[in-house]
């Protein structure tokens, strides 16, 4: 495993002989479609802020949230947990900045909001403040230990989302899930979608936001790292093609008004638009945080040398600017029939 992973560094050594031509500043895009549509909309014009479009009616085995060790004095968060907390918070604010909101699906009720795989609760905390008359419930295998001073309309439940949820039928107005495909297996998705449908009340809404797990406009080191990561995902049983079929899956479960939108997020300060430049800087720091978070999985779990991993990480970070790299997220919204 270590020899295979070290090819990432070997690829970097030949980078000067395998350079791609630089791309001109490109217009990143948001693309939306209904579940029944098979045609893609063209990219938005470069002068338009691609994050402004709204809906008309989408390796190494990281844990869904932090692992925790306890002692007689309470909860102790180790160094790996701090890395994951840092990654989680950076990702939350990158996604919020690019979307200019915490959710795209229309929500106007003072009802129950369910956050699936809440992790450290970044999204749940903010939504609880935004909707003080709503009840927010965060589900996670390792939910946060909520401080006494948090909003009284927010609570967390210890739930394995791959099993039946401790939530009543037809009781939730808005179901939200984000960034769970990196820890779920293909075999988990059918159960989770059916649970979403079960707990959502008639007329209630759903939003799922997931990364496609890879990088785009990649340099040679990042491209090789993605190939290695994809092989690991396929070996584990993770779904690398979720964006190709989730809209149809939601429709087959019974949801209606299914909409899908793809979102390109720059990595680095290469965009000419000042707002995208700032978002790109923040996304670069997020990628740096992810690399720190993954370090022990590759070094301790896969046998790659620490020096090789650090060298590859440094080269990957430099490639984002050179090749104008970006990450892609896909958002799905849907509704349960009334």
From TrEMBL:
Residues 113-204 form the Methyltransferase domain. Residues 8-19 have a biased composition (Basic and acidic residues). Residues 1-75 are annotated as: Disordered. InterPro entries: Methyltransf_25, SAM-dependent_MTases_sf. It holds the Pfam family Methyltransf_25. Gene3D superfamilies: Vaccinia Virus protein VP39. One of its GO terms (molecular function) is methyltransferase activity. Residues 27-39 have a biased composition (Low complexity). This is Methyltransferase domain-containing protein. It comes from Umbelopsis ramanniana AG. The lineage of its organism: Eukaryota, Fungi, Fungi incertae sedis, Mucoromycota, Mucoromycotina.
């Amino acid at each position: 495993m270590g020899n295979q992973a070290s090819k990432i560094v070997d690829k970097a050594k030949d980078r000067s002989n395998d350079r791609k031509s630089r791309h001109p500043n490109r217009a990143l895009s948001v693309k939306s479609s209904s579940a029944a549509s098979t045609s893609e909309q063209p990219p938005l014009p470069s002068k338009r802020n691609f994050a402004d479009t709204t809906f008309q009616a989408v390796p190494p085995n990281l844990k869904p949230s932090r692992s925790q060790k306890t002692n007689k004095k309470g909860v102790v968060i180790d160094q790996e947990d701090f890395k994951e907390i840092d990654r989680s918070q950076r990702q939350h604010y990158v996604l919020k900045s690019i979307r200019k909101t915490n959710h795209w699906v229309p929500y106007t009720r003072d009802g129950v909001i369910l956050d699936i795989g809440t992790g450290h609760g970044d999204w749940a905390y903010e939504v609880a403040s935004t909707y003080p008359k709503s009840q927010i419930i965060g589900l996670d295998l390792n939910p946060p230990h909520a401080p006494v001073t948090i909003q009284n309309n927010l609570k967390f439940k210890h739930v394995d989302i791959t099993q039946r949820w401790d939530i009543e039928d037809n009781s939730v107005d808005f179901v939200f899930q984000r960034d769970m495909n990196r820890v779920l297996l293909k075999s988990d998705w059918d159960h989770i979608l059916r649970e979403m449908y079960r707990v959502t009340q008639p007329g209630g809404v759903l939003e799922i936001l997931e990364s496609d797990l890879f990088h785009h406009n990649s340099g040679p080191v990042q491209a090789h790292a993605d190939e290695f990561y994809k092989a690991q995902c396929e070996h584990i049983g993770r779904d690398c093609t979720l964006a190709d079929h989730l809209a149809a899956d939601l429709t087959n479960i019974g949801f209606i008004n299914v909409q899908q939108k793809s979102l390109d997020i720059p990595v680095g300060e290469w965009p000419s638009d000042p707002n995208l430049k700032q978002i790109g800087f923040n996304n670069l720091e997020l990628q740096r945080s992810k690399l720190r978070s993954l370090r022990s999985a590759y070094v301790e779990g896969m046998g790659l040398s620490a020096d090789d991993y650090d060298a590859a990480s440094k080269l990957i970070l430099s490639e984002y600017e050179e090749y104008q790299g970006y990450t892609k997220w896909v958002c799905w919204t849907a509704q349960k029939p009334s």
